């Protein structure tokens, strides 16, 4: 892939749009420590020499559990930048979003099956829906956030597929 930006312009853009820090923090509950950080920059992460590892600059209530990892180099015509990147999950945040609600749902179901009689089936269904539906919405929002972040990256860095 390539960026329409020159090498120097690409480096300037990544510096201007990225708040320095460890991107793994933003995909975990530790993002609360960045609650007062500058939210004017869309990306959060690191770029060293010709490598970058960035995620969305977000707070605890708006976690983004994906990073964009890549390398960039000056292309042969020097008017563009050669770019290789992948979108990967931040494992701690990625699995927390998927496993914590699943474990809570299983634990609740075991508790309800042991302690509630058959005539209380409505309680059983209601509590399952209270956990299950938000969990499905969170999984769906996770996919949308990944798409938004990738599109913002492509737009910001003028990436040509």
Total domains = 1
Mean pLDDT equals: 83
N-to-C SSE series? EHEHEEEEHHE
Which stretches are low in confidence, meaning pLDDT under 50 for 5 or more residues running? none
Biggest β-sheet description: 7 strands, mixed
Q: What is the 3D shape?
A: elongated
Report strand %: 15-25%
Task: Describe what you observe in this structure.
This protein has 161 residues and is of the alpha+beta class. It has one domain (2-154). The chain has helices at 7-17, 23-26, 91-115, 121-156, and strands spanning 2-3, 18-20, 43-48, 51-56, 66-74, 81-89, 159-160. Strands 2-3-4-5-6-1-7 form a seven-stranded mixed beta sheet. α3 packs antiparallel against α4. It is elongated and about 75 Å long. 19% of the residues are buried. The model has no long low-confidence stretch (mean pLDDT 83).
Question: What topology does this entry show?
Answer:
Layout: E1 2-3, H1 7-17, E2 18-20, H2 23-26, E3 43-48, E4 51-56, E5 66-74, E6 81-89, H3 91-115, H4 121-156, E7 159-160
Helix pairs in contact: 3-4
Task: Please name the defining characteristics of this protein.
alpha+beta; single chain; elongated; 47% helix; 23% strand; 7-stranded mixed beta sheet
Task: Give a brief rundown of this model.
The protein is α+β, with helices and mostly antiparallel strands and 161 residues long. It has four helices and seven strands.
